[in-house]
TrEMBL record, chain A:
This is ABC transporter ATP-binding protein. The keyword Plastid does not apply. SUPFAM superfamilies: P-loop containing nucleoside triphosphate hydrolases. Its main location: membrane. Residues 1-260 form the ABC transporter domain. Transmembrane segments: none annotated. Belongs to the ABC transporter superfamily. The lineage of its organism: Bacteria, Bacillati, Actinomycetota, Actinomycetes, Micrococcales. The keyword GTP-binding does not apply. InterPro entries: AAA+_ATPase, ABC_Ni/Peptide_Import, ABC_transporter-like_ATP-bd, ABC_transporter-like_CS, Oligopep_ABC_C, P-loop_NTPase. It comes from Cryobacterium fucosi. It is found in: Cell membrane. GO terms for biological process: peptide transport.
UniProtKB/TrEMBL annotation, chain C:
It comes from Cryobacterium fucosi. This is ABC transporter permease. One of its GO terms (cellular component) is plasma membrane. GO terms for molecular function: dipeptide transmembrane transporter activity. Keywords: Cell membrane, Membrane, Transmembrane, Transmembrane helix, Transport.
Automatic annotation (TrEMBL), chain D:
The chain crosses the membrane at residues 9-25, 99-127, 148-168, 188-209, 254-275, 295-318. It is found in: Cell membrane; Membrane. Keywords: Membrane, Transmembrane, Transmembrane helix, Transport. Belongs to the binding-protein-dependent transport system permease family. It comes from Cryobacterium fucosi. The lineage of its organism: Bacteria, Bacillati, Actinomycetota, Actinomycetes, Micrococcales. It comes from the Bacteria. Its main location: membrane. CDD domains: TM_PBP2. GO terms for cellular component: plasma membrane. It is a multi-pass membrane protein. This is ABC transporter permease.
From TrEMBL, chain E:
It comes from the Bacteria. It comes from Cryobacterium fucosi. Residues 4-248 form the ABC transporter domain. Pfam families: ABC_tran (PF00005). This is ABC transporter ATP-binding protein. GO terms for biological process: transmembrane transport. Keywords: ATP-binding, Nucleotide-binding, Transport. The keyword Nucleotide-binding applies. PROSITE patterns: ABC_TRANSPORTER_1 (PS00211), ABC_TRANSPORTER_2 (PS50893). CDD domains: ABC_NikE_OppD_transporters (cd03257). GO terms for molecular function: ATP binding; ATP hydrolysis activity.
C-alpha cells in the first residue's frame, strides 16, 4: 500500500507574469509516495513555496501555471488531474484530499476569530451532515491529539505561543484525514526544543494516520533527519532527488554538496572545518566579486 | 411651474396662510413680547395675537392714525403726553374683558422695569381716569408716535403676577388679537382665527409661521408656494419669484422714511472738504444702486433731500420739490476745480498736493451693501479717485463704525412716521462723539450746531408751521453740506400671493407696510378676503 | 559620477511616490491650475471686477465665455483670478498644518510617557474644538484678514488628524531596528528624527499634506460661501457666495456650476495624487489597481481564487492574435 | 487598572482643556451680544435701546473674567447652562434639546448608512479587485470633493424645484405635531431623504476607499489563503476572514465620526433649512450668544470625547489582541 | 585589552496587566577582546535584552555593567564614547538598515560621527570596510538595502558595526534568517575579524552547532538566568544542566542520526 504513488507532478512550471516574467518553477517532475515524508530543500527564493502552492492551485495572479500536470491518485483508485478542475471541484478537493501547513503559522490564523471557530469551519464546509456539537467535539479532539488541549478551543491565536499555534495549524490540517499534507517551513520560527517536539508529533501522527508529507525547509540538517526522500531545489528546478541517506552520503550535484559542507557538526570534531578555506567556492556563488 | 399644493391645505372655511421668515431654527417656544428674539417676536406670530393701540401708516405717514385698541388717541400739542381711551367690547382670548387698566398696566411696566423700554420712550407718568389713560413722556414724541402707539397691550391679569417679565415664556399667550396660538412646534407655529374677535369675521382660518434657515431657502419656498407671505429681500426677484406665478405673486417694496446712506468721515480727509463731498454726491448713481445692488427690487431714492418718494413727498420743502439726483461727472469736476483740486494724469490731487483716495467699507457678507460700495468705488474712478473696497468681518466693522475709524461706509437710518429719524441719524449733534468714542449714529461726525438746533426744533415744536420751517432748514443744510450721501431707499418689503386671498396693501392702496413681523400686520390680517 | 547618481537617485526616491499613473494625472491637473493661478493676469479676458453694466447676468456667449454676474462681471475671469486665492490658501494651509502635524506628531511619537501622552492630549483637544467658530473668532481679530491668516486658521483647525496619524506611525518606527541602530551609533536626537525617521515618513507626510490641502480648499470655499471670509479675497467660494446671495440658484447655472466644478476638479486632482501616494506606501494597492487592467488584458480574472492554468503554447497563440 | 486610570486622567484633561477653551473663545470675539443684535435687526431697533438691552441680557455685571470662569464651572457642575440671548432668553438646555434630536437623527442615520454602505461597497470592490467595480472609487471620491453646499443646492434645484419629488426644506410638514404616527414618520422620511442622500453621497467615498484599501491588504494575509485552501465557500471567506478583519480600522474611524454627528453639518442645515445643532452654532456665533455657544461646545466636546472612548472600547472588544493588552 | 563585565545584572519589564516580568535575573559574565562568547537559549530567554543593555538601549534594573572596571556611562558624550567601543549587529538584517538611505550613508555615519578618520578619507575608509566584508564597493555603495540580498545586508550591518573600530562586537542572531550556505560565510567573516583585529564577540544564537564551532565559551540562558557557562566543547559535549542537555538533543544532527543508523519511522527504504 505504501509503495504506490499518491501524487505525480510532471513537467510542472509556474511563472509570475510580471515584468520581466519570473519563472519560479521550471519543469519540475516528482512523485510523492503514499505514506512517505518527502523533504524539499533549497535556498531562499528557489521556488519551494511556489511549487507547493502551485500544485494546490492556491497561487493568485499574476502567477500562472504554464505547463505540466499534477495528478492526484486517490485512495479510491480514481486519478484526479488538479489542473483541469474548476472552482467548485477544487474547493471539494482541497483539505479533503490534501491539506497544508503554511509557512509562518503566526499569520496563518485569523487573529480575531477563536481557533475553535477556525477549526470548525473546516467541518461545517466539508461535513455539513454533522451537527454543530459534533463539530465542536471533533475540533476539541484534534486539539487533544496535537497536545494543545481541547480547553483552548475558545482561545484567540495571540493567546497561544508560537509552538501552540503551529500545532493548531497541524490539527487543522489533520481534520479531514487527508492523504497528503504539505508543510511549508512549519518550524523555522521556533526554537529547537519546540521544533523537536513538533517534529516528533508529526512522525507519530503519520504513523497513526498514514498520510504522506511534503516537508519544505531550508534547514538541511533537519530534513536529513526526518525525511524518507529529499529533493533539492535550485532556481526553480529540482537538481537532485534521493533518499535521505543516499543524499547525505553520496551527494551527486555540486549544489547539494556545497549545502552539506555548510553546516558544522554538533557533536563531531571541531576546529578545521570552520576555518577551512572554502571561501572561494562560496563566494563564486554569492554573486559578489571577491577581492 | 407653481405648486401651491402644500400651502392650501383647505379646511372648509378657507386656505391656510403660511408666513415665513429666514431666521433659522426656532428652537424653543417663548411667547414673550419683550424679547425680540423670542419665538413669538422673531417669527412675528405675536403680532396676530397682540394688538397695538393705534396704527400709524409708515408707508404713507400723512394718513390719519387709525385707532385700534384705543378708540380715541389725543396728543397734546407738544406731543409730550397722550390720552388713550380703551375700546369697548374687546375681549381677551381667555374670555376676560379688555379695559383701560390693561393699557395702564402695560405702560407702567416701562417705568418700573426700564430695561423693557427698548424704544427709549422715556415715560414719566401713567395715569388712568375711568376709560382713559394718560401717558406722559420726558420728551416730545412727535417723531416717535408710531413707537408709542404700536406698543402692544398685554393682559394685566396674566402679567401682574409674573415675576421676571424678561424670562417668562408665556406658554399660553393671551391677547386681544384675531388669532390664537393653537399649536407650537419647532418646525411651524399654527394659529387659528378667533370667532369672537371684536373686529368681526376673519377670512383666513389658519396661519402658519415657518422659519427657513436662509434667504435662499425662503425664496425657494415662496417661489414654489410653500410659503405665502414673507418680509424678505428676494434677489433677482423677477425670475426667481414673480415669473413662477405672474398672475398671483406680488413683491411690494414700499418705501418708508428710511434710507441706505453713505456715511463719510467729515473729520478726516478727503471727506472733510464739503466740495469733495458734493462732488462725490454728484457721481453716485442711485438708479444703478437700486438696479444692481438691490436687484431692481426697491424704489430709487431720487429727491436731493434724500427722502424716498412717494412717502416723503409731503415733507420735501418747496425749494427742493422736483429736484432729483443726477449723475454729472463734469459738474463734479468743475466743482472740484473751483475748490482747488487738480489732476495728475487721471488721478485727482487735492489742494495740498496729495492724491485723493479713500476706502469704502461694509461687513463681509452684507451682499447688497458690498455690491453698493463696489459701484460707488467704480463711480469714484470717474473723478480720478482711487477708492478701495474693504469688507472686514461685521464685528470689526461695527466697532470701527462707532468710533469713526473709517472713511466711508454704507449704513441705514432708522425709520419713523416723520423724516426726523432719517435726518437726525445723519447730521444731529446729539449723537456726536469725539473720534475714538463709540457713537450710535452720525458716524461721520457731522458737526453743525445749526442742524442740531433745527432738528431739535422740528421734533419739539408745538405747531406745524415751526416744524415746517425747521425741516426746511434741515433739508437745506443737508443738501448744501452733504453730511452723508443717500444711496437707496430702505423699503418695507413684502412678498405675498393672491392665490387664496386678496385685500393686500399695495401701490394703489398703501394702507400698511406688507410686513408680517410688524405690529401693523394685524390690520392686514383683518383686511384679507378670500380670493373668489 | 557616482555622486551625481547619488543625488539624482535620492531625489528620485523622494518623489518616487508621485511616479505612477494616478499621481501623474493628478499632478497634471494641479499643474494646469497652477499655471492658471500664475498667469491669470494674462489669461483672463477681463479684470475680475470689471463691471459691464450693459451685460448683467448674461448666459455664456462668445464675449463672455462663462456669462456674467449681477454686476456684469465676467465669470470666467473671476474663476481664473480666483484660482490663485484657492491655491495659495490651500497650499499655505497645507504647509503650515503639515509643519505643526510633523512637529507635534513626530515628537509625540518619538518621546514616551507623560510627554507623549500630553502631546497626544493636545492633539485631541484640537480635534475636539469646533473649527468654524474658531475660524470666525480668529478672523475677527483682524481688520482685513490676509490670505496667510486665513490659511493659518485653517491649518490650526486642520493639523490634528495628520498629527495623530504621524504619531502612530512614528511610534511604530521608533522601535524599528534601524532607528535603534542609529541610537546605538550615538546619533543625536534631532538627526535621528530628521535624517533617519522623516524620510521614512515622507509618504505619510505627503499624503497628510494633500489631505489638508483638500480640506483647506473645501474649508475655504465653504467659509467664503457662508460669508465668513472677506469676499475681497477673490476665490471660487466667493463666486459661489455671490451667486447664491444673488439668487443664481438654480436659474443662472453658468454662475455657479463652473466654480463648483473647479473645486471638485481640484479636489479630484489632489485625491488622485493621494491615491498614488497610498499605492506607493502600500504596494499591494498598486498591484491591485495599476496592474489590474494589464492583467485583465492578459486574460486573468483577478477575483479568481484558483491559479490559472495556461500552457505556454496557447498563451503565445493568444498574444499573437 | 493603571491603564484605565491613565486613560481616565487623559480624557479628563482633554475635557477640561476643551471646556476651558470653550469658555474663553467666545469671549475673545470682537463685538458683544447687543451690537450683534442691533446688527441683525438693521435699523429695526434704535440704538437708544442699548442700555435696556444690556440689562435685559444680564450683561451689566462687572465681574472679572476669572470670576465669570468660576461661576461658569459652578453652573456647569449644577447642570445649568444659562439662558440663550439669541433664542428669547430660553434656557440653553431647552434650546439644545430641541435641535439635537434632529441632528442626531438625520446626520446620525446618514453617517451610519454611509458607513454601512461604504464599507460594504468597499469590501466588495476590494474583494473583486481589478473588476469594473473599481470605477466606483473615483466616482465616489469625486462626490466627496464636491463642495457639499453646491451639491445640496443642485439637488434641491433638480429633485425639489424641478421634479417636485421631495420637499426642499424642514424636517416635516408644517402643522404636523411630532408623534409616533405613520403619517409623521412618512413625512420625516420624505423631508429627510434629500439631505440624507446628499450627506451619504458626500461621505461615501472615504468609507469605500478606506475599506477597499484595507480589504486589499487583508486579502494578502496568509489566513485568507488558508481559508481558501480549506475549501471554504468564497462568501464565507469574504465575510468571516477578509471583511471582518478589514473593517476593524473602519470601525474605529466610525466611532470617531459618531462624535462629530452632534456638531451637525452646518452646511446641510443651511441648505435644507433642517433643524439642527450646526445652524444653531452659527446663529449663536453671529449673535455672540455666549451661553448658547458654550452649551453647544460642551455638548460637542463631550460627544467627541465619548466617541473617542467608545472607539477605544470598541476596538478592545472587537480586536481580541488589544483586549489582552489592556485588560 | 578591553573587558566588559556584567555584575548581578537584573532587568525587569513592566508588563500591562500582569505586573513585572523578570527578563534577566542576576546575570554575571565577562566579555574580553579577542574572545568569543556564544549566548544560547530559547526564544524569550533574555538574549536580546543582554545585547540591548550592553549598547545602553535599555537600562539595568539593578546590578552593574563595568567597562574595564568602571561603570558604563548612561548619558551624553561619555555614552557616545562608550558606544564607540561596543557595537552591535542587530538581529534582523532586513529591519536594521534604513530603507531610505544608501549603503554609503550607513557606513559613513559612524565614521563621521566618531571622527574615526579625517573627513577627506571617509570615502576611502568606506571602500576599505566594504572590501573587508567582501562586498564590492563599486557595486554596492550607492545601492539601497532593498537592492541587496539578505546575506549582503548582513555584511553591510557588520561593516557598519566595525566602522568605529570597536573593541567589542555584539552580534544578535546574525544568521538566524539565512540559509546554511550564507550562514557559514558570515560566521567565517566574523572569525577572521576576530583574529585580525583582536575583536571580542558576543555571539547570540540558538544554533548550538555554530555556537560550538565559532566561540570560545558558551553561556546558556534559561528564563533570564545563566544556567550553564563554560568552554564551548565542555558545554556541548558534557552538559551539566538538564536544559542544555535537552537543547543539545533537540538540535538536528545528521551525523549522529545516520551514524546511529536508526530507521526513520515509517520509511521503507
Ligand atoms: N507575486 C510574485 N510576483 C513576482 N515574483 C514572485 C512573486 N512571488 C514570488 N516570486 C518570486 O518567485 C521566486 C520563488 O519564490 P518562493 O516564495 O516560491 O520561494 P521559496 O523557495 O519558498 O523561498 P523561501 O525559502 O524564502 O520561502 C522568488 O524568486 C520570488 O522572488
Ligand atoms: N520592552 C519590553 N517590554 C516588556 N517586555 C519585554 C520588552 N522587551 C523584551 N521583553 C520580554 O523580555 C523577555 C526577554 O526578551 P528578549 O528579547 O531578550 O528575548 P530573546 O532571548 O532575545 O528571544 P528571541 O530568541 O526570540 O530573540 C521576553 O519575555 C520578552 O517578552
Ligand atoms: Mg517559501
Ligand atoms: Mg532576540
Amino acid at each position: 500500500m505504501t509503495t504506490d504513488d499518491l501524487l505525480t507532478v510532471s513537467q510542472f512550471s509556474v511563472s509570475y507574469d510580471v515584468n520581466p516574467p519570473v519563472e519560479a518553477v521550471r519543469d519540475v517532475s516528482i512523485t510523492v509516495r503514499r505514506g512517505e515524508i518527502l523533504g524539499l530543500a533549497g535556498e531562499s527564493g528557489c521556488g519551494k513555496t511556489t511549487l507547493a502552492y502551485g500544485i494546490q492551485r492556491l497561487l493568485k495572479p499574476p502567477a500562472v501555471i504554464t505547463s505540466g500536470s499534477a495528478v492526484f491518485h486517490d485512495e479510491s483508485g480514481e486519478d484526479i488531474d488538479i489542473n483541469t478542475m474548476d472552482d467548485v471541484q477544487l474547493r471539494a478537493f482541497r483539505w479533503e484530499k490534501a491539506s497544508m501547513v503554511f509557512q509562518g503559522a503566526m499569520n496563518a490564523l485569523n487573529p480575531i476569530i477563536t481557533i475553535g471557530a477556525q477549526l470548525q469551519d473546516v467541518f461545517s464546509t466539508h461535513r455539513p451532515a454533522m451537527s454543530r456539537r459534533e463539530h465542536r467535539l471533533e475540533a476539541g479532539r484534534l486539539l487533544d491529539i496535537v497536545g494543545v488541549g481541547s480547553g483552548r478551543l475558545r482561545s484567540y491565536p495571540h493567546e497561544l505561543s508560537g509552538g501552540m499555534r503551529q500545532r493548531v495549524m497541524i490539527a487543522m490540517a489533520l481534520a479531514l484525514k487527508p492523504q497528503l499534507m504539505i508543510m511549508d517551513e512549519p518550524t523555522t520560527a521556533l526554537d529547537v526544543l519546540v521544533q523537536r517536539e513538533i517534529l516528533d508529533q508529526i512522525s507519530d501522527l503519520r504513523k497513526e494516520f498514514g498520510f504522506s508529507v511534503i516537508f519544505i525547509t531550508h534547514d538541511l540538517p533537519l530534513l536529513l533527519e526526518i525525511s524518507d526522500r529529499i529533493a533539492v531545489m535550485r532556481e526553480g528546478r529540482i537538481v537532485e532527488i534521493d533518499t535521505a541517506r543516499n543524499l547525505y552520503e553520496n551527494p551527486r550535484h555540486d549544489y547539494t554538496r556545497r549545502l552539506l559542507a555548510s553546516f558544522p557538526s554538533l557533536t563531531g570534531e571541531r576546529g578545521g572545518f570552520v576555518r577551512r578555506p572554502s571561501e572561494s567556492a562560496l563566494d563564486a556563488e554569492s554573486g559578489v566579486t571577491v577581492q | 411651474g407653481c405648486t401651491s399644493g402644500n400651502s392650501s391645505s383647505t379646511s372648509e372655511s378657507g386656505a391656510a396662510l403660511t408666513i415665513a421668515k429666514p431666521d433659522g431654527a426656532i428652537a424653543t417656544e417663548s411667547n414673550n413680547p419683550w424679547i425680540g428674539e423670542s419665538s413669538g417676536m422673531k417669527l412675528g406670530y405675536l403680532n396676530a395675537i397682540l394688538e397695538p393701540l393705534g396704527i400709524v401708516n409708515l408707508v404713507s405717514p400723512s394718513d390719519e392714525v387709525r385707532p385700534w385698541l384705543a378708540s380715541e388717541i389725543t396728543w397734546t400739542d407738544d406731543y409730550r403726553a397722550v390720552t388713550l381711551v380703551a375700546r369697548d367690547g374687546v375681549t381677551w382670548n381667555d374670555g376676560e374683558d379688555f379695559t383701560a387698566e390693561d393699557i395702564e398696566f402695560t405702560f407702567t411696566m416701562f417705568t418700573t422695569k426700564p430695561e423693557l423700554d427698548t424704544a427709549a420712550l422715556g415715560i414719566t407718568d401713567v395715569t388712568r381716569d375711568g376709560d382713559s389713560v394718560t401717558v406722559t413722556f420726558a420728551g416730545s414724541m412727535f417723531s416717535k408716535q408710531d413707537k408709542v402707539l404700536h406698543k402692544q397691550i398685554l393682559p394685566k391679569h396674566i402679567w401682574e403676577s409674573v415675576e421676571d417679565p424678561a424670562t417668562f415664556a408665556n406658554p399660553n399667550p393671551v391677547g386681544t388679537g384675531p388669532y390664537v396660538l393653537s399649536q407650537f412646534d419647532t418646525q411651524s407655529v399654527e394659529l387659528t382665527a378667533r370667532d369672537d374677535y371684536w373686529g368681526g369675521k376673519l377670512a383666513v382660518p389658519t396661519l402658519y409661521y415657518v422659519s427657513y434657515n436662509d434667504n435662499t431657502a425662503l425664496t425657494t419656498a415662496l417661489a414654489n408656494g410653500d410659503a405665502d407671505w414673507a418680509q424678505a429681500f428676494i434677489p433677482n426677484v423677477k425670475s426667481a419669484y414673480l415669473d413662477k406665478d405672474p398672475e398671483n405673486n406680488v413683491y411690494w417694496a414700499a418705501a418708508g422714511l428710511a434710507i441706505d446712506t453713505m456715511f463719510v468721515n467729515t473729520q478726516t480727509k478727503p471727506f472733510n472738504d464739503v466740495a469733495f463731498r458734493k462732488a462725490m454726491n454728484l457721481v453716485i448713481d442711485r438708479t444703478q444702486y437700486a438696479d444692481i445692488a438691490r436687484e431692481g427690487s426697491v424704489p430709487v431714492v431720487s429727491s436731493v433731500t434724500g427722502l424716498p418718494t412717494p412717502v416723503g413727498d409731503p415733507f420735501i420743502s418747496a425749494e427742493y420739490k422736483g429736484e432729483t439726483y443726477k449723475v454729472d461727472a463734469d459738474a463734479a469736476k468743475s466743482l472740484l476745480k473751483d475748490a482747488g483740486y487738480t489732476w495728475a494724469g487721471k488721478s485727482l490731487v487735492d489742494p495740498s498736493g496729495a492724491p485723493v483716495t479713500f476706502a469704502l467699507s461694509v461687513p463681509q457678507g452684507w451682499n447688497d451693501y458690498v455690491t453698493g460700495i463696489s459701484l460707488i468705488a467704480d463711480a469714484a474712478k470717474s473723478l480720478g479717485v482711487e477708492a478701495t473696497v474693504d469688507t472686514p468681518d461685521s464685528d470689526t466693522w461695527w466697532e470701527a463704525k462707532g468710533t469713526g475709524d473709517f472713511q466711508a461706509i454704507l449704513h441705514w437710518t432708522d425709520t419713523g412716521a416723520t423724516p426726523y429719524d432719517l435726518y437726525s441719524n445723519m447730521m444731529d449733534g446729539r449723537w456726536l462723539k469725539p473720534l475714538g468714542e463709540s457713537a450710535d449714529f452720525n458716524f461721520g461726525r457731522f458737526d453743525s450746531p445749526k442742524a442740531t438746533a433745527a432738528l431739535n426744533e422740528y421734533t419739539n415744536a408745538a405747531d406745524d408751521a415751526t416744524r415746517g420751517a425747521a425741516l426746511e432748514t434741515v433739508q437745506k443744510i443737508f443738501v448744501d453740506e452733504v453730511p452723508a450721501m443717500p444711496v437707496g431707499t430702505r423699503p418695507f418689503i413684502g412678498a405675498f400671493n393672491t392665490r387664496s386671498y386678496v385685500g393686500w396693501p399695495g401701490e394703489d392702496n398703501p394702507y400698511a407696510p406688507a410686513d408680517p413681523t410688524q405690529p401693523t400686520a394685524v390690520l392686514i390680517l383683518t383686511e384679507l378676503e378670500a380670493a373668489n | 559620477m557616482t555622486h551625481k547618481r547619488n543625488a539624482f537617485g535620492r531625489l528620485g526616491q523622494t518623489f518616487a511616490m508621485f511616479r505612477n499613473g494616478k499621481s501623474v494625472a493628478g499632478l497634471s491637473i494641479l499643474g494646469a491650475f497652477c499655471l492658471v493661478a500664475i498667469f491669470g493676469d494674462w489669461i483672463a479676458p477681463y479684470g475680475p471686477l470689471d463691471k459691464d453694466f450693459t451685460a448683467l447676468r448674461q448666459a455664456p456667449s462668445w464675449v463672455h465665455w462663462l456669462g456674467t454676474t449681477h454686476m456684469g462681471e465676467d465669470v470666467l475671469s473671476q474663476i481664473i483670478y480666483g484660482t490663485r486665492g484657492v491655491l495659495v490658501v490651500g497650499f499655505t494651509a497645507g504647509v503650515i498644518a503639515t509643519f505643526i502635524a510633523v512637529g507635534i506628531g513626530v515628537t509625540a511619537g518619538y518621546v514616551t510617557g507623560w510627554r507623549s501622552e500630553s502631546l497626544s492630549a493636545l492633539t485631541n483637544v484640537f480635534l475636539v474644538i469646533p473649527g468654524l467658530p474658531l475660524i470666525i473668532i480668529i478672523a475677527s481679530q483682524y481688520e482685513n484678514p490676509s490670505l496667510l491668516l486665513i490659511s493659518s486658521v485653517l491649518a490650526i483647525t486642520g493639523w490634528a488628524w495628520g498629527g495623530r496619524v504621524l504619531r502612530a506611525q512614528t511610534m511604530s518606527l521608533r522601535n524599528r531596528d534601524f532607528i535603534q541602530a542609529a541610537r546605538a551609533n550615538g546619533e543625536p536626537l534631532y538627526r535621528i528624527i530628521a535624517v533617519e525617521m522623516l524620510p521614512n515618513l515622507t509618504a505619510i507626510i505627503a499624503s497628510s499634506f494633500v489631505g489638508t490641502v483638500i480640506a483647506a480648499v473645501l474649508g475655504l470655499t465653504t467659509l467664503a460661501f457662508i460669508g465668513v471670509i472677506p469676499i475681497t479675497n477673490l476665490n471660487w467660494g466667493t463666486i459661489l457666495f455671490w451667486a447664491q446671495q444673488n439668487g443664481a440658484f438654480p436659474d443662472f447655472w453658468w454662475w455657479y456650476v463652473p466654480a463648483g466644478l473647479c473645486i471638485a476638479l481640484l479636489g479630484m486632482a489632489l485625491s488622485l495624487i493621494n491615491f498614488g501616494i497610498d499605492e506607493y506606501v502600500n504596494p499591494r494597492l498598486r498591484s491591485a489597481g495599476e496592474r489590474a487592467r494589464a492583467m485583465r488584458k492578459k486574460g486573468f480574472v483577478l477575483s479568481d481564487r484558483v491559479t490559472a492554468v495556461r500552457p505556454r503554447a496557447t498563451d503565445d497563440d493568444s498574444t499573437r492574435q | 487598572m493603571r491603564f484605565i486610570l491613565r486613560r481616565t486622567a487623559f480624557y479628563a484633561f482633554t475635557a477640561w482643556a476643551a471646556i476651558t477653551i470653550n469658555f474663553f473663545l467666545p469671549r475673545m470675539m470682537k463685538g458683544d451680544p447687543v451690537s450683534a443684535y442691533l446688527q441683525k435687526n438693521q435699523g429695526r431697533i434704535s440704538p437708544e435701546a442699548i442700555d435696556s438691552l444690556r440689562t435685559l441680557f444680564g450683561l451689566d455685571s462687572t465681574k472679572s473674567l476669572l470670576e465669570q470662569y468660576i461661576d461658569y464651572w459652578q453652573l456647569l457642575l449644577s447642570g445649568d447652562l444659562g439662558r440663550s440671548f439669541s433664542k428669547g432668553l430660553a434656557p440653553v438646555t431647552d434650546v439644545i434639546a430641541s435641535a439635537i434630536p434632529w441632528t442626531i437623527g438625520l446626520v446620525g442615520l446618514a453617517t451610519v448608512l454611509s458607513f454601512a454602505l461604504g464599507t460594504a461597497i468597499g469590501g466588495l470592490i476590494g474583494w473583486r479587485r481589478g473588476s469594473r467595480a473599481d470605477a466606483i472609487v473615483p466616482v465616489a471620491t469625486f462626490f466627496s470633493t464636491v463642495p457639499y453646499f453646491w451639491m445640496g443646492l443642485i439637488a434641491i434645484a433638480v429633485f425639489s424645484t424641478t421634479l417636485g419629488w421631495f420637499p426642499a426644506s424642514h424636517a416635516y410638514d408644517k402643522g404636523t405635531q411630532p408623534g409616533f404616527s405613520l403619517e409623521f414618520a412618512g413625512q420625516v422620511i420624505q423631508h429627510g431623504f434629500l439631505p440624507a442622500l446628499t450627506l451619504v453621497i458626500g461621505s461615501l467615498g472615504g468609507w469605500i476607499l478606506g475599506m477597499r484599501n484595507m480589504m486589499i491588504t487583508v486579502l494578502d494575509e496568509d489566513y485568507v489563503t488558508v481559508a481558501q485552501a480549506k475549501g471554504l465557500r468564497p462568501v464565507r471567506v469574504l465575510i468571516n476572514y477578509a471583511a471582518r478583519n478589514a473593517s476593524l480600522p473602519q470601525l474605529s474611524s466610525f466611532a470617531m465620526s459618531l462624535g462629530f454627528i452632534v456638531g451637525g453639518t452646518l452646511v446641510m442645515e443651511l441648505v435644507f433649512s433642517y433643524p439642527g445643532a450646526g445652524k444653531l452654532l452659527l446663529d449663536a456665533t453671529t449673535a455672540k450668544d455666549y451661553p448658547l455657544m458654550q452649551g453647544l461646545f460642551l455638548v460637542i466636546t463631550l460627544a467627541v470625547l465619548v466617541a473617542n472612548i467608545i472607539a477605544d472600547v470598541a476596538y478592545a472588544i472587537l480586536d481580541p489582541r488589544t483586549r489582552q493588552m489592556e485588560a | 585589552m578591553t573587558t566588559l563585565e556584567f555584575r548581578d545584572v537584573t532587568k525587569k519589564y513592566r508588563v500591562r496587566g500582569s505586573g513585572e516580568l523578570i527578563a534577566l535575573d542576576k546575570v554575571n559574565f565577562t566579555l574580553t577582546s579577542g574572545r568569543t562568547i556564544a549566548l544560547v537559549g530559547q526564544s524569550g530567554s533574555g538574549k536580546s535584552t543582554i545585547a540591548k543593555i550592553l549598547t545602553q538601549l535599555e537600562r539595568v534594573s539593578s546590578g552593574q555593567v563595568l567597562l574595564d572596571g568602571t561603570p558604563i556611562p548612561t548619558w551624553g558624550r561619555p555614552l557616545r564614547r562608550y558606544r564607540q567601543t561596543v557595537r552591535m549587529v542587530f538581529q534582523d538584517p532586513f529591519a536594521s538598515l534604513n530603507p531610505y538611505h544608501t549603503i554609503r550613508h550607513h557606513i559613513e555615519r559612524p565614521l563621521r560621527l566618531d571622527r574615526v578618520v579625517p573627513a577627506d578619507q571617509v570615502e576611502e575608509e568606506v571602500f576599505r570596510l566594504l572590501n573587508r566584508v567582501r562586498l564590492s564597493p563599486e557595486q554596492t555603495i550607492d545601492r539601497r538595502p532593498h537592492e541587496l540580498s539578505g546575506g549582503q545586508r548582513q555584511r553591510v550591518a557588520i561593516a557598519r558595526a566595525l566602522a568605529s573600530r570597536p573593541a567589542l562586537l555584539i552580534a544578535d542572531e546574525p544568521v538566524s534568517m539565512l540559509d546554511v550556505s550564507i550562514r557559514l560565510e558570515v560566521l567565517n567573516l566574523l572569525a577572521e575579524l576576530q583574529r585580525e583585529a583582536n575583536l571580542g564577540v558576543l555571539y547570540i544564537t540558538h544554533d548550538l552547532a555554530t555556537a560550538r564551532h565559532f566561540s570560545d565559551e558558551i553561556m546558556v540562558l534559561h528564563h533570564g538566568k545563566v544556567v550553564e557557562h563554560g568552554p564551548s566543547d565542555d558545554v556541548i559535549l558534557h552538559p551539566t544542566h538538564p536544559y542544555t542537555l535537552a537543547l543539545r538533543d533537540a538540535s538536528p544532527d545528521p551525523e549522529k542520526h545516520f551514524a546511529a543508523s536508526t530507521t526513520i519511522p515509517g520509511a521503507t527504504t
